[in-house]
Amino acid sequence: MAAEYRSVTVAPGHTLRVRKLPKQTDRPGFVRVEARHRPPFEVKASLWNEAPIV
Questions:
Q1: Residue 31, exposed/middle/buried by CB under 10 A (0-12, 13-18, 19+)?
Q2: What is d(CA 15, CA 2) in angstroms, rounded to the nearest whole number?
Q3: How far apart are alpha carbons 30 and 43 in whole angstroms?
Q4: If DSSP codes are grouped into helix, strand and coil, which group holds residue 7?
Q5: What is the longest distance spanned by two Cα atoms in the chain?
Q6: E-strand spans in the chain?
Q7: How confident is the model over 1-52, as pLDDT tens digits?
């Protein structure tokens, strides 16, 4: 499976290119991602789904 990257808006005016991690969170409605030089974190699944693929 190829890595899946998207450009997710994490705050107003702040967009990150993130990669979806294979190991997902136990929290329903969230996706575990990572960005360069940042530890893994969770974003709402709705933000992930709306983000453009890069």
A1: buried
A2: 22
A3: 6
A4: strand
A5: 32
A6: 5-11, 14-20, 30-34, 41-44
A7: 688 999 999 899 999 999 999 998 999 999 999 999 999 999 999 999 999 9
